[in-house]
Amino acid sequence: FFAGTRGVLQASAAACTGAGHWYWEDNVLYIYYTEDPDGAVDIETIKRDYCINGNSKDYVTIQNIDVKGGKVANILLSGASCIVSSVDSSCAVIDFSVTGNSNSIYSSTATSPSGTAFSIAGDSGTFYWNVISGAGGNGLLVSGASNTLYKFNITTSTSEAVDITGNTNTFYYSLLHSNLDDTFVVTGTSVTIYNNVIFDSGAAGLDADESCTFRNNIVRTSTGDDINIANTKTVTGGYNCFEDAAEAGTGTYTDTGTSTLFSTDPEFIDSASDDFRLNPH
């Protein structure tokens, strides 16, 4: 809107030849004006904070769509008991922002080139069968409590692939590989992580800054430590397979059944081609 009058979108900047003409490209607004418009005309533009704003509504279902370019997040779930499925999202900030409780997102993809793919601040949600690639920040940031997350495929996140700051969250049955920082960082209490493949971490496979349970995981080819445990913290392990010879840090790793394998190659079929199945022998 120019001085209260709606403008007319043009096909190119060169086509802006009359009053009210405008064109937008690469974050630049082109307008037609016969003098310097700075201070001479009021220009109003629309800012779309969200592609879809749940607006604190409950029992909303969103499925089978593509979303892109929200200024704050692509989808905001601020109500309860909402379902998002089969959504492809690309956002520079946050793909999926969950602040309400008991929500579910599944079978969806997220690419957040300079932000976080999933920000989960709500409690008691269920998130599964999702693919995250190329996040410029965290793949998953979980600050809510008592969420269940499983069957994720998370690759090439710039910051931590999974940053769990909330309490009593559970993460399992997932493949996490080629992430550029720590794969897991845990600062929440009573967190459980099990049955995951963690490969080619840019830093630690697990950075345990709080006591947690970590069982039945394969951790290999970490640039840093496979597992690092902070002072006074305890990781309750069991049936893990590590490439490193021992845990790192000044904390404690407990495995009462001595079932953990250190200095062990799990023998993936072809990890170079992202085939993380194990050789049958």
UniProtKB/TrEMBL annotation:
InterPro entries: Pectin_lyas_fold, Pectin_lyase_fold/virulence. This is Right handed beta helix domain-containing protein.
